[in-house]
Amino acid sequence: MKHNAEDPLNNLLNLGHEVLKGEVYRGVVYAHLDPYLGYLHSIQFAKMRTKMPDY
């Protein structure tokens, strides 16, 4: 992300993004969750298909 953009609108978008990111981080920490923990939306093994046959 380019933080020192020439366009004033882009500067406002960058500022808004940073403020929102900070608010989300604080909310996650306030909820006693790990802000660095990733997750999967769903695991669908039945839908995964491969072109290699199982021998």
Distance between the amino and carboxyl termini:
47 Å
Major β-sheet, in short? none
- What is the number of independent domains? 1
β-sheet strand percentage? under 5%
Low-confidence stretches: none
Q: Taking all residues together, what is the mean pLDDT?
A: 76
Tell me the structural class: mainly alpha
Whole-angstrom Rg: 20 Å
Instruction: Count up the helices.
Output: 1
Encode the helix/strand succession as letters.
H
Q: What is the helix content?
A: 40-55%
Shape: elongated
Total beta-strand segments = 0
Quick description:
The protein has about 55 residues and is mostly helical. It has one domain (about 10-45).
Describe this structure in words.
The protein is mainly alpha-helical. The model has no long low-confidence stretch (mean pLDDT 76). The chain is 42% helix and 0% strand. It has one domain. It is elongated, with a radius of gyration of 20 Å. The protein has one helix and no strands. The longest helix is centred in the middle third of the chain and has 23 residues, at 8-30. The protein has one helix at residues 8-30.
Summary tags:
mainly alpha; 42% helix; 55 residues
Give the secondary structure arrangement, pairings included.
Elements: H1 8-30
